[in-house]
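May I ask you to review the protein record following this short note?
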Amino acid sequence: MRAFIFPGQGSQAVGMGSALAAASPVAREIFQEVDEALGQHLFRIMTEGPEADLTLTENAQPAIMANALATLRVLEKEGGVVLRDKADALAGHSLGEYSALCAAGAFDLATTARLLKTRGRAMQAAVPVGEGAMAALLGADIEKAEALAAAAAEGEVCAVANDNDPSQVVISGHVGAIERAIGLVKDHGIKRGVLLPVSAPFHCPLMQPAADAMAAALADTQSPGAFIPVYANVTAAPVSDAATIRDLLVQQVTGRVRWRESIAAMWEAGITDFVELGGKVLGPMVKRIAPDATVTSVISMDDIEALLGRV
């Protein structure tokens, strides 16, 4: 059994999508459609930068989605891959969940791009710059991370944001609490705490204004549901019903990304083959969660052609 998985923020890089667009008219059509949906030259920012513009949350989120969906569409239209025949489940990390839902037919491409633009702006605006922070805890399992977050909070927000794999957890919250947590890592048996270069504290209660904005945006969005089950970040369980999808996407803004649990649940369900589209970030996490899994990262035309030889 196979799952296609989609990367989240941090997988963007200037030049992304350039080679794929040069090689495939299908990819060019995807990037053009996203540009038209957003009313901006996002693909120019993706290919030419500047990096500071690409890393803006409101640009990075739709850009990463566009790159992943362009890769998928080339597989489908030029490679003859029928997703519902080749995938038993889909999943995406944070914003990647929107990519997965688009692939599964829950939202069309233009709608997905606009939702991510709204999400990026709302998440950036939810907390004034300098008031929030995130840190990666290396050598931390979820129990150690939760204990550290509780000890460091001292009345402020300090919460587990991403449970990525058995050795990496990300915490999020007020900057003071995150700094205290980094200072306490050794006391909790954690190897290291690294402050992340992010502009807002994602996936914690401080994001409630962004969750409210997404609730309003999603309420106005029609969806037929997903034709392939998508493992939701906040439940680590498959979902296909449109109303449930919308509700879980709202919860996702402030909730924990249960990536480790999602991959473990897919493995338990019999999924052994994972294909990451548009990035090389999630594959190593999957191998740390399910060491016997087969993992393939697909970015270039060469990657696509190699994958076509075995799916």
Notes: The beta strands are 2-6, 89-92, 132-138, 158-165, 168-174, 192-195, 230-231, 238-239, 273-277, 294-298. The CA atoms of residues 183 and 193 lie 8 Å apart. The chain is about 50% helix and 15% strand.
